[in-house]
Each structure stands twice: as C-alpha cells, then as structure tokens.
Amino acid sequence: MKKLISIGVALALLTMVVMPSAVAAQEEILPTTFAKIPFAIVGSGIQLVGEILDIVGTELTLPAWINSDLTEPIAQWAAGPMAWSVDMVGWGVTLMGSIMGAVEPLLGDTLPEGLDLPGLFNTVACALFQGYDAISGNFTDPCTA
After folding, report:
1. Cα gap 17→7, rounded to integer Å
2. pTM metric for this prediction
3. How far apart are CA 64 and CA 19, in angstroms?
C-alpha cells in the first residue's frame, strides 16, 4: 500500500512539474462562437490526455504509438469540423424562422397573441452565431448589423 501511495505522489509531483510546459507547448484551441465552447473544451481535454500519455505512457507499458501524435488530430477534429454541427443547427433554426414567418399568417388565431415565432427562431439562431474572442474579449452579435 505504501508503494502505491509513493507511486501516486511521484506521479503527482511529475505532473505538477512537467505538465505546465507540456500544456504550454500544445496548439491552443479557441472557440469562435459561444456555442462552440463545449467542443473546444472536449478538444482541449483530448489534447491533455495526449500530453499525459507522452509523460506516463512508458511507465504504463503502453505501445509507443499511443501518444499525443495520435490524440492531436482527434482533438483538432473535435474542436473544428465536429463543431461545425453548431453552424448547421443555426442554419436549420434560421430556416425554421423563415418558414414560420411564411406560415404564421396561415395559422391565424391558433397561436397565442403576441407570439412572434419567426423572432423566436431568429433569436435562437443569433445566439448560436454570437462570436466569441477569448483573447481580446471582443463579443460580436451577428444580429445587430
């Protein structure tokens, strides 16, 4: 039991010393919109796993190919092309806003008074496309132009 605790303490100290430089060396993943932040978090987490594997992979007797060279393309894909699904959802919501704008007059009195269906869909779409710049703190609203 003492040996297990000693190994754990040694790994924790190694991580505290080595990880800051390893994490600083990785390519930073920044989201372009608020809605893409979860994808950036997943991508950064996958990068972190790769960096940890670089450090402790041999101690865990893992094959040499299981390292950050393997996880980096996965991380970049998760934060990039996979995040494009947010753009597709935004496009779909914008399309529904346009459709509701055309259909709303046909529905007549069946909708609650004051309900603006196209406006509701467009508000959601604008929130999905709201730009985010983590470095400069600039926030852009695509619907105020």
Report:
1. 15
2. 0.66
3. 19
Token readout for 47 is: 């990068």
Q: How confident is the model at residue 135 (pLDDT cuts 50, 70, 90)?
A: low
Which structure tokens are listed for 75? 């991380």
The alpha carbon dihedral of 85, 86, 91, 95 has a sign of positive
Q: Where are the alpha helices (DSSP H) in 1-145?
A: 2-25, 37-56, 68-79, 84-107, 117-129
* Neighbour-count burial of 138, counting CB atoms closer than 10 A to its CB (0-12 exposed, 13-18 middle, 19+ buried): exposed
Cα separation, 104 vs 79, in Å, equals 37
**C-alpha to C-alpha distances, 37 to 12, 41, 80, 89, nearest whole angstrom:** 28, 6, 11, 15
